Amino acid sequence: MSTTEFLAVRGRKLAAGAGALTTALALGATLSAMTPAQAAPGPTAKPYGVITAKMGLSERQYPSTDASVKGYLRHRAQVNLVCKVRTQPVGGNSVWYLTGEGRATWVAAKYVTNNGSVKYCKEVQRGRIAPHNNAAKHAVG
């Protein structure tokens, strides 16, 4: 094989390789352009908590241990969390969660493990909390 033939064969291989590389790059650009639209997060899940108290946890009318008990949640029960306030500390934790379980009740955060970020009640629209719930005047922060 002469030098000219060798260079011609090599040139065809390089051209074929460059074509394949161009095709791969184009395909990669197409796929990467599609990825953000496909990877866009869906609607955010509402926060929830799991009761960690071994004996369960009382649901209260207001965020205070002095408030009347309106219900009871068993150990490992899952509860929707609407928002939180800082008020009377329970076991060194001053956060209380407003639950969304049919009726508006409060649970001490000391005994709830939440799945993510729960907003403060003042950041949540007033109408979504509970129109009849006067807990805001009893809460601090």
From TrEMBL:
Leader sequence segment: 1-39
Superkingdom in the source lineage: Bacteria
UniProt keyword annotations, A-Z: Signal
Protein name according to UniProt: SH3 domain-containing protein
